[in-house]
Amino acid sequence: MAERISVMVPWLGAEESDALAEVVASGWVAQGPRVAEFEARFAEAMQAPFAVATSSCTTALQLALIVTGIGEGDDVVVPSLSFIATTNAVRYVGANPVFADVDPASGNMTGRTLAAAMTPATRAVIAVDQGGMPLDLDDIRAVADARSTVVIEDAACGAGSTYKGRPVGAGAEITAWSFHPRKVLTTGEGGMLTTRREDWAERARRLREHSMSISAADRHATVLAPAEEYTEVGFNFRMTDLQAAVGLVQLARLPEIVARRRAVAARYQAAIAPIAGLRAVADPAHGTSNFQSFWVEVGPEYPVDRDGLLVALAEADISARRGIMAAHRQPPYRALAPEEGLPATERLHDGTLILPVYHQLTDEDQDRVIAVLRSPGGDRR
């Protein structure tokens, strides 16, 4: 029998194991020198002046909202078409999420959909590079800047994607990143906040460590540690040196990882193009995707609907996933759904699925997936 094909498998190997062993042998496994090195190298790779490692992208988003001054009573525009953490982070700081629709081609918020969702109380927008698809930041900024609204870029899926020839997030004032195992670059769990403002970075560093005036690394570096002060209510949002050691190896591999994923995506696109009723996601004119998620829209001309195709893939022992979730359909946020609906969001939520893409996916594995796409009814010769 053919082996099961997973939707995603992290590319981890001996280099990551060796890096972990070095950290264990050093005796310093909490936030320390490896985290500092990972921050410096990630900032350089993403063309950001400052980087702050965190326990997850969700906590990075929460810190981004706090350091930009967002809190009780503020409205924050978010795309409903995003993992629920994007919306949850707004609630964590006491602000109100307001849902915007997306462009059906890219799955991303646009200046037009942002403008339609803004309220008199809007003070921030979280714009998402959904599935690694680069958003048009200049389009978003043109609307937000006119209203003195801060733009937080949620690049959870974006490491290795580009916008106008630069890494996504490079042009943003503040950006949050994820290193979850489903992401292109993984540390198991973990996140990063990058920013152009030193004051935001310094405050985020304090907040992630209970707002201590002196970092744990600095305290442990001396025999007689100076007394610390807790300057405000903070959090435990730290990354460990174990995670950062893996991240450093992964970061060095990032160009190779992205190149392989783009090759897999190109092969899917070529195979899907002649299939009536299927539309594959593709690069926008303003950038390139890392294809963290390769999604396909199933139209009415196709022999089965989206769920029928998921069943056909599962019967062939191929793991696919429903497309990006719509947060406004989840119980905590149903009351916030706009009366006019979010037609593009709902169309993509109901009609898309995510196909397997990972570094180790072979041509033979991909051919099995393509065979089901061509003939979901079962004749796959």
Automatic annotation (TrEMBL):
Annotated InterPro entries: DegT/StrS_aminotransferase, PyrdxlP-dep_Trfase, PyrdxlP-dep_Trfase_major, PyrdxlP-dep_Trfase_small
Catalytic site positions: K183 (proton acceptor)
GO biological-process terms attached to the record: polysaccharide biosynthetic process
CDD domains: AHBA_syn
GO terms of molecular function: pyridoxal phosphate binding; transaminase activity
PANTHER family for the chain: DTDP-4-AMINO-4,6-DIDEOXYGALACTOSE TRANSAMINASE, TRANSAMINASE
Protein known as: Glutamine--scyllo-inositol aminotransferase
Species of origin: Agrococcus pavilionensis RW1
